[in-house]
Amino acid sequence: MTAANAETDALIVIDVQNDFCPGGALAVSGGDEIVPLVNRLIAVSPHVVLTQDWHPARHSSFASVHAGQAPFGSIDLPYGAQTLWPDHCVQGSKGAEFHNGLAWTKAELVIRKGFRPAIDSYSAFFENDRVTPTGLAGYLRERGLTHLTLVGLATDFCVAYSALDARRLGFDTRVVMDACRAIDLGGSLQDAITRMQQSGVTLTDSTSVAA
């Protein structure tokens, strides 16, 4: 693995927020364990972009707004099937803040997603309708950043969706698997791994990433 190219390479850090770490409203098991490794990758990356889940209260993906529904069930919304989640990453809340150990200040851009009340957003590139863009692709292209490394939470949802969209949009994409953690809801981790491999996403680990 060659050293990062300052002209083309960017690290995308996905949703390393309090609500996705132990003690949070939608805690991913071991979510906080990745923080030291993510920080090391941030330190050696020439360009860093962060994403931040940023929901209004009573977001349509929250189970609490649908009578008779429980978290981790599924309903159909106008854009398709939607997993229902506990209320999490509400705008301005402690849970929406980045983990306090994350060395996030090097970020050149923070993409907030999921702020539209009627639609969820897993991917760093598109809302869950798969057509409404976040603007990240245009930003990366204008800056000539074509080789993307993804880390963060959770492997099988926001990281995988972001990686799949990155490949669909023509970016060279790799995911550092030991710098991610998964929810693994009903086999969702293996499904995400299979889809990423089939789409041409490189799955690697931190030992293969040059210091």
Question: Could you walk me through the main structural features you see in this protein, from its secondary elements to its overall organization?
Answer:
By secondary structure, the chain is α/β, with parallel strands linked by helices. It is built from four helices and eight strands; from the N terminus they run E-H-E-E-E-E-H-E-H-E-H-E. It has helices at residues 35-44, 136-142, 155-168, 188-199; strands spanning 9-14, 48-53, 74-77, 80-83, 109-113, 147-153, 172-181, 202-204. The strands form two sheets. Strands 5-2-1-6-7-8 form a six-stranded parallel sheet. Strand 3 (74-77) and strand 4 form a beta hairpin. Helix 3 packs parallel to helix 4. The longest helix has 14 residues, at 155-168. The mean pLDDT is 95.
Features:
4 helices; 211 residues; alpha/beta; two-stranded antiparallel sheet
Give a quick summary of the entry.
This protein is α/β, with parallel strands linked by helices.
| Number of helices, counting only DSSP H or I runs of 4 residues or more | 4
Overall shape: globular
Helix and strand sequence: EHEEEEHEHEHE
Query: What is the mean pLDDT?
Result: 95
Number of strands: 8
Proportion of residues in helical segments: 10-25%
Structural class per helix/strand content?
A: alpha/beta
Low-confidence stretches: none
The largest sheet, given as strand count, sense and whether it forms a barrel, is: 6 strands, parallel
How many whole angstroms does the radius of gyration measure?
16 Å
What is the percentage of strand-forming residues? 15-25%
Spatial order of strands in the largest sheet: 5-2-1-6-7-8
Distance between the termini: 10 Å
